[in-house]
Design brief:
Blueprint: H1 16-31, E1 42-44, E2 54-56, E3 62-68, E4 76-80, H2 81-89, E5 95-101, E6 107-113, E7 123-125, E8 140-143, E9 154-158, E10 161-162, H3 165-175, H4 183-198, E11 203-205, H5 206-210, H6 213-219, H7 226-239, E12 243-247, E13 250-253
Parallel strand pairs: 3-5
Antiparallel strand pairs: 1-2, 2-3, 4-8, 5-6, 6-9, 7-8, 9-10, 11-13, 12-13
Length: 259
């Protein structure tokens, strides 16, 4: 994988944002692959397509690309709030590529986040634009990147080093079961993945997870059986290979969680 951009493409551009767009989109087309199925040939949509930037003809996955000089730690600005929420609720939101590049236009970090990790709770409504703005009262959104579980952030390039595609595909497939779950169940599974991520040790007990009970009560005030829900979701994660059952009440993180 060549991590250098083709700078000749930017010779006729002066705007930094246009230069970044041209260079990063070209790099993805020539160097990236579909992290869902491994297809080496991604295609780009028309520039004004509101759905996504790239698609895979093999598995029909859509991808939206966002590029940065410095990868935000907490929030990433996205498009219209209502549009994003409607896409999530109808399961038509795209997967994401996030690309961080250096001052000399080479790839530092390139990562993907599967679409099924995006729930309405991950999307933050921004304040409406002022009455005097060109798009008066338009409401955008932020992706709460910092709230995503680490398991849902899959690096293709990390610290200027390409990750073995087999590892990327394995990490994607380990959580792909989420796409078939209802949004309510998916939210719980993602929540438990994130909580297990936060446990520092590789081996943990069910009591370690029960410590998050008050946090979950605040998040799901209508659920009176938090501990039972925790046990249910741990069983789901165990059945899908994300955690391993060692013995009664004791688990071990799998290859994906926490790594």
């Amino acid at each position: 994988m060549n991590l250098l951009f083709n700078l000749k493409l930017a010779e006729n551009y002066k705007s930094n944002s246009q230069i970044a767009r041209v260079l990063t989109e070209d790099w993805v087309l020539k160097n990236s692959y579909c992290p869902s199925c491994g297809n080496r040939d991604l295609n780009n949509y028309d520039r004004n397509n509101p759905a996504a930037d790239f698609y895979c003809q093999n598995c029909s996955s859509d991808f939206e690309l966002k590029s940065f000089r410095a990868l935000p730690k907490l929030k990433i600005v996205d498009g219209a709030y209502n549009s994003m929420i409607n896409k999530i609720l109808s399961n038509k939101n795209p997967n994401f590529f996030f690309l961080q590049y250096s001052s000399n236009y080479s790839v530092l970090n390139y990562l993907t986040i599967p679409k099924y990790f995006f729930t309405s709770e991950i999307i933050e409504k921004r304040k409406p634009l002022s009455q005097d703005a060109r798009r008066a009262k338009w409401i955008g959104c932020n992706i709460l990147y910092g709230n995503l579980p680490q398991t849902g952030i899959i690096y293709i390039v990390k610290d200027s080093k390409a990750i073995n595609p087999k590892i990327v595909l394995q990490q994607w497939q380990q959580t792909s079961f989420l796409i078939d779950q209802k949004l309510s169940n998916r939210g719980w599974a993602i929540e438990l993945i994130g909580l297990v991520d936060r446990i520092s040790s590789e081996t943990f007990t069910i009591k370690d997870v029960y410590k998050f009970e008050e946090f979950l009560k605040q998040k799901y005030p209508n659920n009176r059986f938090i501990k039972a829900k925790i046990r249910q979701q741990l069983q789901v994660l165990r059945d899908k290979g994300l955690i391993k059952f060692l013995k009664r009440g004791i688990y071990q993180k799998g290859n994906s969680i926490g790594n």
